[in-house]
Specification:
By secondary structure, the chain is mainly beta. Helices cover 10% and strands 50% of the residues. The chain contains one helix and four strands; from the N terminus they run E-E-E-H-E. Strands 3-2-1-4 form a four-stranded antiparallel β-sheet. Strand 1 and strand 2 form a beta hairpin.
Length: 68
Amino acid sequence: MKVGARNRIVAKVTDVKKGGVMCLVKVSVPAGSRMASVMTLESLNELGIKKGDQVEVVVKAVNVLLMK
């Protein structure tokens, strides 16, 4: 699959929580940081993602905001 995002991080899937249509996939990235992604169950099944898998996190954001 071709994507335009240039920020890619290798991660390990730590948890998958499934809902009715969507799911939350939590991953652990280097340095012990954590990230999460929300996707459709259809996408989860097509990609075959499950707990323990190594995945590539592709980050594409127009804005990244920090607030205090």
